[in-house]
């Protein structure tokens, strides 16, 4: 048996994914990629993300947003506001290892799927609750939206020009780091359970996730006492000396990361840099150095400068777009993107896995499901007999979509 034939490292674990949007589904998908049996528990009309296509990429029957965050899952469509539907979930909890939700604080209690209620059914359950700002506190009921959290975290004021509006990251940064944090929390709690047999509640919130991501920057502020001060020139980081950031060349853009000023001066023909000290003038003459560097880089194409910087051992690199990224030779060598056939969306190419395992590698066993595609299958595994299942369908407590 080859490693590709072996079950994933989390094979045998059952995850109930009751989350919506990005952070929760992305965390659950990572668990599925490692072999866990992830059952996406969604409303009979489908999870919110099915109806909100990022970039307008609607797909055939499944939009790209949902497809990208829900592979390696089965879909159970159930109405948790219906007593019969709620009982279905309780049956599933009895045999589950992980329960993941990102309801607003208080919703799980109202639905009767809070940690205390589910732990009474299954004491060994690892219960993960994801929120925007925390389970309680003054902001608990605020909407946990990515851009709002980016702004609140302080990160947006660590780059760019003083006096200009801050710029957000070009990705759903807070959602992504929260997903990774929840994924880590699940693995750690499962390890604890393996050692002790004890389940537990794991809480993750977006505000803490993006704040702790800035471990070094915030420590410079809180321990070093240095203010977060943007300059007149668009530096990429308030706590790194000049020059540091993206620069325009005669035919495109490149990034330059705190080069030795004497070497930089020799390459650019900036004699004024030759007498400068990196850790003194890189701060006291920050805007001047940035502006003079920017003016020089405009005179030649990117390739000229990148070759010259590489020869001098200066850290510099190209500014890619997505089209450049997907055809990069290192990306291809790493197998960063994976291609598979989806039953309704056809042949798709998407980002793959951020980790490698020599014995139990992650893989895609199924694409994102249709709403309730596996409802009947999951209920049968939970021990419901055919008549019970048909009664649930008839009552509208559960639903299915067939391919």
Number of strands: 12
Query: What would you say the CATH architecture of the largest domain is?
Result: 3-Layer(aba) Sandwich
Fold-level CATH name of the largest domain = Rossmann fold
* Strand order in the sheet with the most strands: 6-5-4-1-2-3-12
Broad shape: elongated
Mean pLDDT: 95
Poorly predicted runs: none
Structural class assignment: alpha/beta
CATH superfamily grouping of the largest domain: Crotonobetainyl-coa:carnitine coa-transferase, domain 1
Helix-strand string = EHEHEHEHHEHHEHHEEHHHHEHHEEHHE
Chain-wise SSE layout:
Blueprint: E1 14-17, H1 23-33, E2 37-42, H2 64-69, E3 73-78, H3 83-94, E4 98-101, H4 107-111, H5 115-121, E5 126-131, H6 146-152, H7 173-196, E6 200-205, H8 206-213, H9 215-222, E7 244-248, E8 253-257, H10 261-268, H11 278-284, H12 286-297, H13 302-311, E9 316-318, H14 322-326, H15 329-334, E10 337-342, E11 346-351, H16 375-381, H17 386-395, E12 398-399
Parallel strand pairs: 1-2, 1-4, 2-3, 4-5, 5-6
Antiparallel strand pairs: 3-12, 7-8, 8-9, 10-11
């Amino acid at each position: 048996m080859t490693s590709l034939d072996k079950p994933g490292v989390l094979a045998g674990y059952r995850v109930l994914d009751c989350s919506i949007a990005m952070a929760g589904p992305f965390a659950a998908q990572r668990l599925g990629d490692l072999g866990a049996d992830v059952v996406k528990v969604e409303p009979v009309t489908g999870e919110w993300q099915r109806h909100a296509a990022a970039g307008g990429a609607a797909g055939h029957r499944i939009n790209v947003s949902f497809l990208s965050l829900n592979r390696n899952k089965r879909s159970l469509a159930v109405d948790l506001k219906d007593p019969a539907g709620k009982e279905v979930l309780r049956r599933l909890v009895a045999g589950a290892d992980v329960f993941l939700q990102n309801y607003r604080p208080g919703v799980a209690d109202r639905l009767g799927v809070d940690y205390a209620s589910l732990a009474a059914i299954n004491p060994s359950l690892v219960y993960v609750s994801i929120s925007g700002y925390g389970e309680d506190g003054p902001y608990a009921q605020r909407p946990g939206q990515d851009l709002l959290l980016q702004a609140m975290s302080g990160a947006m004021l660590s780059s760019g020009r003083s006096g200009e509006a801050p710029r957000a990251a070009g990705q759903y940064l807070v959602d992504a780091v929260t997903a990774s944090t929840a994924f880590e929390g699940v693995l750690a709690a499962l390890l604890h359970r393996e050692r002790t047999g004890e389940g537990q509640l794991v809480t993750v919130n977006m505000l803490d996730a993006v704040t702790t991501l800035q471990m070094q920057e915030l420590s410079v502020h809180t321990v070093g006492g240095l203010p977060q001060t943007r300059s007149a020139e668009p530096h990429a980081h308030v706590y790194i000396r000049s020059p540091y950031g993206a620069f325009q060349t005669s035919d495109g853009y490149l990034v330059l990361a705190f080069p030795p000023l004497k070497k930089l001066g020799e390459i650019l023909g900036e004699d004024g840099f030759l007498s400068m000290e990196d850790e003194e003038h890189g701060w006291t003459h920050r805007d001047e150095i940035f502006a003079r560097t920017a003016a020089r880089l405009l005179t030649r194409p990117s390739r000229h400068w990148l070759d010259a910087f590489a020869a001098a051992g200066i850290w510099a690199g190209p500014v890619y777009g997505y089209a450049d990224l997907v055809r990069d030779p290192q990306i291809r060598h790493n197998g960063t993107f994976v291609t598979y056939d989806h039953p309704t969306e056809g042949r798709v190419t998407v980002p793959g896995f951020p980790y490698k395992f020599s014995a139990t590698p992650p893989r895609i066993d199924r694409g994102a499901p249709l709403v309730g595609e596996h409802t009947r299958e999951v209920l049968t595994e939970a021990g419901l007999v055919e008549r019970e299942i048909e009664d649930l369908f008839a009552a509208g407590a559960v639903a299915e979509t067939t391919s």
